[in-house]
Amino acid sequence: MGQVSHALDTEHQATLALLGQVEGAFVRGRGDPDERARVAAALVRFLADEVDRHFGFEERDLFPRLVDAGDGDLAALLTEEHVAIRAVASEIMPLARAASARTIDASGLEALRRGATEFSERLTAHIGKETMALQPTLDALLDDETDRTLAFAYATA
Fold first, then answer.
1. Please, are residues 98 and 37 in contact by the beta-carbon 8 Å criterion?
2. Structural domains in the chain plus CATH codes
3. Which tens digit of pLDDT belongs to each residue from 51-92?
4. What is the H or E stretch that residue 128 is in?
5. DSSP code of 27?
6. pTM here?
7. 99-150, pLDDT tens digit by residue?
């Protein structure tokens, strides 16, 4: 596994762990209000920092290389999914903020549950596609120097 694939995989695993916590706190309704507030705060940080950083790197630095190598369909599919995931993220962000501040009401909590379910389903499926298709393609496509350069750029972004 190349360095870029390794970095993406590491983030994917952390994302899946967070999604498990989100599902437990909001989708399945486990946990007390303190736990829900803690998980909501982690979700807010993720939505604010990681979604655009991760997707932006892929769209800016990786997908054009896929297109140039003849894998434009994969790049287009993943980009379309990024658009849909970002849309759901923007819908649940204010709800997650309210939940983290413990100012969310019952209807907001229900909206967060629905949105978190959709977000988790979409992002989990997307990660699966990247794991099965994007990462192996990158490993075959990127030479060692390009892989190192991109991994360093991503790590310092």
1. no
2. 3-155 (1.20.120.520)
3. 999 999 999 999 999 999 999 999 999 999 999 999 999 999
4. helix 106-129
5. I
6. 0.92
7. 999 999 999 999 999 999 999 999 999 999 999 999 999 999 999 999 999 9
Read off the tokens for 41. 């705060």
The two three-digit tokens of residue 36, written as one number:
């829900």
Taking alpha carbons only, the member of 133, 145, 144, 143 closest to residue 8 is 133
The stretches of 46-105 forming alpha helices (DSSP H) are 51-57, 63-68, 72-100
CB neighbour list of residue 106: distance below 8 Å, 6 or more residues apart: none
Token pair for 97: 């903020």
Instruction: Please name the amino acid found at residue 40.
Output: A
- Distance of alpha carbon 38 from the chain centroid: 19
